[in-house]
C-alpha cells in the first residue's frame, strides 16, 4: 500500500486508479492510505456540476476541461453514474461522452456508481477527491448522476457548484426551486439555441431577485455546450466565484465545514457498522421475540443496544 501511495504522489496515473478502487471498495489498509496522502491534499479546486437529466452536464464538463487544459492545468473528473443493478458498477454513460479526453495524459476520468447512495453522489466521492488531489490535479470536476432536486450532497463536496439548466422542462420555475437555488454558485442555461432559453435565464434571475442579501449573487449565462459557444463565459463565472471565496476567506470556511460534515459522517458510518453487526445476533432475536408478548418494548431494546455499541 505504501508503494502505491508513493507512486500516486509521483503522479502515476495507473496507481491513482488502483488507489481509488481500493478506497471505493474499502479494501484492507484503505484508511491508512488516506491518512498518508491527506497532508498532500488541499491544492485542487473542486467544481461540482449538477442539474436535471439531459441538461448536457457531461458535454459541458468536457468543454470546460478542454478550456482548462489549454492553460496547462491537470484535471480530474469524477462522473457519478447510475449503478448497474447487476454488477453494482457505474453504467459509464458520462465517460463515453468524454471519450476523447481519455487520450490526454493530464486528464484523469473516473466513473463511480452511486451504489444506492442518495443525494446524487457515491459514498466514496470524498475519498476519491483526496486521491486525485494528492495525485496532483489542479481542478477536480464532480458531475452528479442527475436525478433532480435530491442532489444536494454536491454542496457539501464542491468549492463551486455549477447548476446546468435547459429550456423546455415544462414547469421551469418548479425545476429551479426547492433547494436547488440554495446550492448554486453559478448557473448555466445550456442548449441556448432552443426556444425558451432566454426565458429560462430570466426566470432564474427573477428567482435570485427574491433574495436581497447576496454576498455573491450567482451569475447566470447562456451556453451551447455541443458547439462550445458560451462555455468560456461559464468558466469565467466559475473563476469569479473562486476569486470571491479566496479574497473573503470563505474558501477556508467552506472547507472547514466540509471536514466537519465528513468527520460526522465517518463516525456515523462506524456506529452504523457496529449496529449492523448486532442485528443478526441471537441475543437481539430473543429480545425481539419478547416484543410480541409485550415483555419488552422496542425503545428499551434500542437503548440497550446503543449502550452496548458505545461502551
Give a brief description.
This is Methylmalonyl Co-A mutase-associated GTPase MeaB. With 311 residues, the chain is of the alpha/beta class.
Which descriptors would you attach to this protein?
Methylmalonyl Co-A mutase-associated GTPase MeaB; 2 domains; Rossmann fold; alpha/beta
Low-confidence spans: 84-91, 115-120
The major pleated sheet works out as: 7 strands, parallel
Across the major sheet, the strand order is 3-2-4-1-5-6-7
Average pLDDT level = 85
- Number of beta-strand segments: 7
Order of SSEs, N→C? Answer: HHHEHEHEHEEHHEHEHHHH
CATH architecture grouping of the largest domain: 3-Layer(aba) Sandwich
Classify the fold: give the CATH topology of the largest domain: Rossmann fold
CATH domain class of the largest domain: Alpha Beta
Number of helices: 13
**Class computed from helices, strands and strand pairing:** alpha/beta
For this structure, what is the CATH homologous superfamily of the largest domain? P-loop containing nucleotide triphosphate hydrolases
Please give the radius of gyration in angstroms: 22 Å
In percent, how helical is the residue content?
Answer: 40-55%
Report the span from N to C terminus.
32 Å
Shape: globular
Assess the beta-strand content as a share of residues: 5-15%
Count of discrete structural domains = 2
GO molecular function, one term: GTPase activity
Protein name: Methylmalonyl Co-A mutase-associated GTPase MeaB
Organism: Paraclostridium bifermentans (Clostridium bifermentans)
InterPro entries: AAA+_ATPase (IPR003593), GTPase/Isobutyryl-CoA_mutase (IPR052040), GTPase_ArgK (IPR005129), P-loop_NTPase (IPR027417)
Amino acid at each position: 500500500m505504501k508503494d502505491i501511495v508513493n507512486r500516486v504522489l509521483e503522479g502515476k496515473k495507473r496507481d491513482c486508479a488502483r488507489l481509488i478502487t481500493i478506497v471505493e471498495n474499502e479494501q484492507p489498509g484503505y484508511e491508512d492510505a488516506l491518512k498518508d496522502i491527506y497532508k498532500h491534499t488541499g491544492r485542487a479546486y473542486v467544481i461540482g456540476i449538477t442539474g436535471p437529466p439531459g441538461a448536457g452536464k457531461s458535454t459541458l464538463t468536457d468543454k470546460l476541461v478542454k478550456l482548462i487544459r489549454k492553460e496547462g492545468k491537470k484535471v480530474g473528473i469524477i462522473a457519478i453514474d447510475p449503478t448497474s443493478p447487476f454488477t453494482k458498477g457505474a453504467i459509464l454513460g458520462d465517460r463515453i461522452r468524454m471519450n476523447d479526453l481519455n487520450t490526454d495524459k493530464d486528464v484523469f476520468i473516473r466513473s463511480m456508481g452511486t451504489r444506492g447512495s442518495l443525494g446524487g453522489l457515491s459514498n466514496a466521492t470524498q475519498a476519491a477527491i483526496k486521491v486525485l488531489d494528492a495525485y496532483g490535479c489542479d481542478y477536480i470536476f464532480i458531475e452528479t448522476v442527475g436525478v433532480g432536486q435530491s442532489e444536494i450532497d454536491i454542496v457539501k463536496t464542491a468549492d463551486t457548484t455549477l447548476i446546468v439548466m435547459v429550456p423546455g422542462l415544462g414547469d421551469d420555475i418548479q425545476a429551479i426551486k426547492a433547494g436547488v437555488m440554495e446550492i448554486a454558485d453559478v448557473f448555466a442555461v445550456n442548449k441556448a439555441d432552443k426556444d425558451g432559453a432566454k426565458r429560462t435565464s430570466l426566470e432564474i434571475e427573477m428567482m435570485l431577485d427574491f433574495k436581497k442579501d447576496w454576498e455573491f449573487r450567482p451569475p447566470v449565462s447562456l451556453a451551447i455546450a455541443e458547439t462550445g459557444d458560451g462555455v468560456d463565459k461559464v468558466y469565467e463565472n466559475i473563476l469569479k466565484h473562486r476569486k470571491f471565496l479566496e479574497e473573503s476567506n470563505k474558501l477556508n470556511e467552506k472547507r472547514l465545514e466540509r471536514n466537519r460534515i465528513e468527520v460526522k459522517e465517518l463516525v456515523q458510518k462506524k456506529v452504523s457498522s457496529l449496529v449492523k453487526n448486532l442485528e443478526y445476533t441471537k441475543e437481539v432475536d430473543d429480545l425481539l421475540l419478547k416484543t410480541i408478548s409485550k415483555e419488552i418494548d422496542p425503545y428499551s431494546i434500542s437503548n440497550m443496544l446503543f449502550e452496548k455499541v458505545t461502551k
